[in-house]
Amino acid sequence: MTSSFSASSFPASFPESTVLGYPRIGPDRELKRALEAYWEGRSDRAALERTARRLREDTWRRLAELGLGGLPSNTFSYYDHVLDTAVLLGAVPERYRNDDDLTAYFAMARGAEGLPPLRMTKWFDTNYHYIVPEIGPDTVFSLDAAKPLSEVREARALGLETRPVLVGPVTFLLLSQAAPGSPDGFAPLDRLDDVVEVYERLLGALAAEGVGWVQLDEPALVADRTPAELAAVEAAYGRLGGLAERPALLVATYFGSLGEALPVLARTPVEAVALDLVRGTAGDVGLLAGKTVVAGVVPGRDVWRTDRDRALATLHAVRERAGRVVAGTSCSLLHVPYDVERETGLDPALRDRLAFAEQKVAEVVALAALLAEGPGADAPRRPAPQAQPLASGARAAEGRAPYAVRAAAQAERLKLPLLPVTTIGSFPQTGELRRARAALAAGEIGEEAYESLVRAEIEHVIAVQERLGLDVLVHGEPERNDMVQYFAEHLDGFAVTRHGWVQSYGSRCTRPPILHGDVRRPEPITVRWARYAQSLTSRPVKGMLTGPVTIVAWSFVRDDLPLRDVVFQVADAVREEVRDLEEAGIGVVQVDEPALRELLPLRRDGQAAYLEWAVAAYRWATSGAADHTQIHTHLCYSDADQILAAIDALDADVTSVESARSRGRVLAEVGGFGRGLGPGVYDIHSPRVPGADEVERLLEEALRAVPADRLWVNPDCGLKTRSHEQVEAALANVTEAAARLRERLHRGEAGRRGETRPDS
Ligand SMILES: Nc1nc2c(c(=O)[nH]1)N[C@@H](CNc1ccc(C(=O)N[C@@H](CCC(=O)N[C@@H](CCC(=O)N[C@@H](CCC(=O)O)C(=O)O)C(=O)O)C(=O)O)cc1)CN2
Ligand SMILES: [Zn+2]
């Protein structure tokens, strides 16, 4: 049974071990299945709630069984914890309000009939996505504490005391966007006083419930913050700490060092601060003397077993300087899979080096026990036989010819019309394909049966694109389970898991591959599928590869080499694949880098150096291509503004970007690139089919920023999450819009900047 404490002994002492959060999708993605059944009308609210409750209970029981002291609660979510916080604060925009709270909740997350969802974006530098709350000057806040309170009660019914976890007020507002119609200069943080007032009432309600500790997550404090923002932190926690009736407060920071925010938190009356001692350092931790420090020494974002000696030494060092220390994870365990013991297919030598969420909990518990034994305790060393690193580092790409020269060679070879229409790569992943892949893995069907299904799908996708009149075709990626996992399965140096699901957004998950050794490409990966697709049509088929930064960003990566060297190893493999596609007669190759922005360091001082090597790796991967081979790249989910110069420096012949939901800004920014550009005209995240008129208007708008001879027509992103029906209807409208506009351009009726053909 877990150690618990009584709220009446305030300030309660903190348990000796804890984790900042836990996965919630379920060991077998039970929540995903329950959500999708509910959304599709195959089940009801009661069934969804039953699954959710069972997942929460299983988690608390398991954590208690493993001997964990401080159990978190309110880490469950039906979709996203930032959205949950907006609901808690009553910040539900008017247009989503509904008598049924769950209907309003999912409308914000996923949209509803005629109602687009709220924006979704990356949670710091992770592959988790949160829903961006909308806060305006007139947003009326009100407390809805039902969720954290009921989770506390549920755990109590099992005999377990928990610590509710909430996004803290400063991070919540910094992650929010100004509601439409807010006056210029308004920032959501302007509403801090009002939001803190709701948190005050929340803390009161939790205290009344007998809750001893509350965790407020403030990861925004590990990024560069202005003096005004730091002052806001001090004011907010000064107020919350000054309350007479409240639980003890743990402010959790993670994903980096606190830096100048540490002395600020130190001055506030909060009882405990959690520090990420994996990605960050302890800094001026001595300033926290008198508070409890939750020392995040067990990595929450990788899958490697913790080096016990090092972790214990860190715990001792922090204890010496700060006093009371608790063993913890560096961040929530949301970012790792549940249990490595289930991965019976992994090489045992590798598996022995791995720790997933359950194993990490056990590590935290063990470290807490060793810490309690005192400084002399003898800790077992972690067995960490690492592969010999390759002598590797940056390779300098001897660039391709200047764009004008390449563009002329490509125009000559590809003979594309004005406003060429293409897609981003994937076509709908049918249930039939997914089931066949599962059957293949289970040995129920053979390779040949599976591959003939893939070929049939390629035939279908090529036929659809020819019929609709697209100009640069794709094979549709039917052979890929995921754009990163698929490549990992075909490269040496990676392992993949069977059950290692990690939530990416809502019900969508990935199984991040484990990059544990030197990366090599034993043989061509995509060439035979590209060649097969090209054999079916006289139009150009675009080869489709995932870029080196994205492959690494969406994997769990060895930590014994600089990230940059690992990325360059992957870039070597991609470079070989580009060459082989070219040799197979493929004239257009797309190398996707949707995660380019994601790995950008949170603090400015590391950003320039990162962008320099990330761009260099991309150019190394693509610069082996001949001038007459057209290189495309694709980015999405990127707040492009911060990395525009880097995107330009990729030097791709054609760049497609997501823009359906933030159009004007993107266009103004990327219009000046001077090479091919495809601002998305079809928002593939919504089931909605855009009309031809609508697409035509979007293209007209694009023509104001991009000359006609450089404008491409394409969706925002891949089509894998849509249905064939939606995709065919949408693409028919897209090609029709492009044809109409092309006709008008030829008659000289549209486009103001279509005068500069590079080959004339
Ligand atoms: N790695 C990665 N990160 C990314 C993206 C991405 O595409 N890949 N896109 C952005 C958005 N994130 C996304 C993340 C996941 C998915 C997604 O669609 N995931 C699928 C799973 C994809 C997959 O691995 N599919 C496998 C396994 C499919 C499966 O569930 N199989 C069943 C059996 C078959 C069945 O009955 O349907 C099972 O295992 O139980 C396959 O196709 O082979 C899902 O959650 O549903 C989409 C976007 C950013 N980050
Ligand atoms: Zn994309």
TrEMBL record:
UniProt keyword Glycosyltransferase present: no
Keywords assigned: Amino-acid biosynthesis, Metal-binding, Methionine biosynthesis, Methyltransferase, Repeat, Transferase, Zinc
Disulfide bond found in the keyword field: no
Entry EC number(s): 2.1.1.14
Species annotation: Microbispora amethystogenes
UniProt pathway: Amino-acid biosynthesis; L-methionine biosynthesis via de novo pathway; L-methionine from L-homocysteine (MetE route): step 1/1
GO biological process: methylation
Family per record: Belongs to the vitamin-B12 independent methionine synthase family.
Binding-site residues for Zn(2+), renumbered to this chain: 634, 636, 658, 717
Annotated catalysed reactions: 5-methyltetrahydropteroyltri-L-glutamate + L-homocysteine = tetrahydropteroyltri-L-glutamate + L-methionine
Domain Cobalamin-independent methionine synthase MetE C-terminal/archaeal: 419-739
Sequence ranges of Low complexity compositional bias: 376-389
Protein name: 5-methyltetrahydropteroyltriglutamate--homocysteine methyltransferase
GO molecular function, one term: methyltransferase activity
Gene responsible for this protein: metE_2
Residues bound to 5-methyltetrahydropteroyltri-L-glutamate: 29-32, 122, 508-509, 554, 598
Annotated positions binding L-homocysteine: 424-426, 477, 592
CDD domains: CIMS_C_terminal_like, CIMS_N_terminal_like
Cofactor dependence: Zn(2+)
InterPro entries: Cbl-indep_Met_Synth_N, Cobalamin-indep_Met_synthase, Met_Synth_C/arc, UROD/MetE-like_sf
Domain Cobalamin-independent methionine synthase MetE N-terminal, residue spans: 17-321
Function, as annotated: Catalyzes the transfer of a methyl group from 5-methyltetrahydrofolate to homocysteine resulting in methionine formation.
Cofactor binding, note field: Binds 1 zinc ion per subunit.
Binding site for L-methionine: 424-426, 477, 592
Active site: 685 (proton donor)
Annotated segments matching region Disordered: 376-395
